[in-house]
Amino acid sequence: MKKNVFFKITINIVFILLVLVALVMIFNRPIKNQIINSYHPKVSRRVVLRAEQRQRQDTKRHRHNVSYNFKKVKSLDFETAVKARMASNQIEMVGQILVPKSGIHLPIGLGVSNTTLALAAGTMRPDQKMGTGNYPLAGHHMVNHYVLFGPLYFKTKVGDRIFLTDMKTIYQYQAYQRKFIAANRVDVVDQTRKPIVTLVTCDATGAGRLMIRGKLVNKYPLNTATPKLKRALLRPANN
């Protein structure tokens, strides 16, 4: 009698586990997107200054959290998203990117570690500075039109405004080029004389890249921005 009860309990547990696994597989993408969208960091000038200080001093934390090794970048699967969300405090935030027409509003983190790219746009060179030369940013292209750099692929067009800020100064760019390039075109990350922003994400196949470039058209203190723009940049990112 006891053996039969134990057997039935075991079967029920196994059945429930199989159902849970099946549900996770079915809803893998929506759950992953929700995990990413649940990240709403408050990027402040104080946070930026601390990250920049750790970068200058090359602290242990900076070396641990920041990587520019593109070969180690993984596709953004469910496991990577969960791990990144649990380790979001490792992102060394140095500002924000806002593309109003596309609905992009993300923190900018140093480097292209899997944690950073799972939740933010990542810088692609250790020496880049907003408003000076080429400022390249990488981001994941999601099937969802509203997650990470998904809107970049589906919505961003030539002529759109792109705002970067280090929470002190706003750098306003205007997109002038939308181009699909080979994945090995690392030259697009190189420094330039003219001040531009270069946004890079995967194409629909994942084998190539979409590049959008914008030229610097204006820069001004954050506290002098229009009320609408100021509200957008002072509220939590990814919002």
UniProtKB/TrEMBL annotation:
<dbReference type="InterPro" id="IPR023365">
    <property type="entry name" value="Sortase_dom-sf"/>
</dbReference>
<dbReference type="InterPro" id="IPR005754">
    <property type="entry name" value="Sortase"/>
</dbReference>
<keyword id="KW-0788">Thiol protease</keyword>
<keyword id="KW-0645">Protease</keyword>
<keyword id="KW-0472">Membrane</keyword>
<feature type="transmembrane region" description="Helical">
    <location>
        <begin position="6"/>
        <end position="27"/>
    </location>
</feature>
<protein>
    <submittedName>
        <fullName>Class A sortase</fullName>
    </submittedName>
</protein>
<keyword id="KW-0378">Hydrolase</keyword>
<dbReference type="InterPro" id="IPR042007">
    <property type="entry name" value="Sortase_A"/>
</dbReference>
<keyword id="KW-0812">Transmembrane</keyword>
<dbReference type="Pfam" id="PF04203">
    <property type="entry name" value="Sortase"/>
</dbReference>
<keyword id="KW-1133">Transmembrane helix</keyword>
